[in-house]
Design goal:
about 280 residues, Endonuclease, Chain A
Length: about 280
């Protein structure tokens, strides 16, 4: 992001919160001063700066005027808020616009976040997919073909670059997601080898919930959580962008339950290795 040169990224804080806080401080204003001059409450300024609330476009414009933010930073702040807007995007609309556009939007949200948590019960999480696996997923149903398919795969692969950043990731999958054989055993063995490699990154925790583990929680779909500000839920027919703090909190509680069930580090690698071995036997 261009604006990060003007207002540096701070580990553990998302870009939106860090940028607005740094702009306020550079303007020599306290939270109370900023709230009064922008016509907002001090608690609202605090919630925005701590990542608990998505500001509106009008609030971003008002704060940028007050802080005398550079034009490029203002544009990026408005883009982040637009990407995080609460909505339900129907799958048919996503396809009409190009699935690669949604991948770009998700990539921008990931780049603007400091902490990313995700769970998937049925497929490998997007950030961990190999190009061959992603192609098999996007080709499902035959709705995406040709150049549109190539673009979608390329944008999903580009998103994975965020794993090389200083952001913190906790990515959990059910064992069933790794055993859902996409494209054949050789493809799956390579996919699992890739996941095993990523488990060694210091900023990425990959968890697997083994099928032998008894559970008392039953998530019906996958979801992603970005800091404490937003959750994204995808189904076959739609993708929902959720920013209501109460709803996001519900997903955080659910994720904590799933995290307690998952195996990590060496335990996760053993599960992954066992499944990869099963695919190699099939191949």
């Amino acid at each position: 992001m261009a604006g990060t040169e003007a207002v540096g990224h701070e580990r553990g804080r998302d870009w939106l919160s860090t940028t607005l806080r740094d702009l306020r401080r550079r303007a020599g204003l306290s939270g109370m001063d900023a709230a009064g001059q922008a016509g907002l409450s001090q608690p609202r300024i605090s919630r925005i700066e701590t990542g608990r609330f998505v500001p509106t476009e009008a609030e971003i414009r008002s704060l940028c005027r007050l802080y005398q933010a550079p034009a490029d930073v203002r544009r990026e702040l408005l883009q982040v808020v637009d990407d995080l807007r609460s909505e339900t995007a129907a799958a048919r609309v996503v396809l009409q616009r190009g699935a690669w556009r949604l991948q770009q939007r998700l990539g921008r949200i990931e780049a603007a976040s400091a902490r990313l948590r995700a769970y998937q019960p049925a497929v490998v999480l997007g950030l961990l997919q190999t190009a061959d696996y992603a192609r098999a997923v996007f080709a499902d149903g035959g709705d995406i073909t040709g150049e549109a398919l190539d673009q979608a795969v390329a944008e999903r692969a580009a998103r994975a670059a965020v794993l090389d950043s200083d952001r913190d990731f906790t990515l959990i999958m059910a064992e069933g997601a790794l055993r859902w054989q996409a494209g054949g055993p050789r493809l799956m063995a390579a996919q699992l080898d890739h996941i095993a490699e990523v488990t060694h990154r210091a900023n990425v925790r990959i968890g697997v919930i083994p099928w032998i583990r008894p559970v008392q929680v039953f998530p019906l779909h996958g979801f992603h959580i970005y800091d404490q500000r937003a959750a994204i839920v995808s189904t076959r027919t739609a993708t929902a962008f959720i920013t209501d703090p109460r709803d996001v909190s519900d997903y955080e509680k659910l994720f904590a339950e799933l995290e307690a069930l998952a195996s990590f580090d060496d335990d996760a690698r053993r599960v992954i290795s066992r499944i990869a071995g099963d695919y190699r036997d099939l191949a």
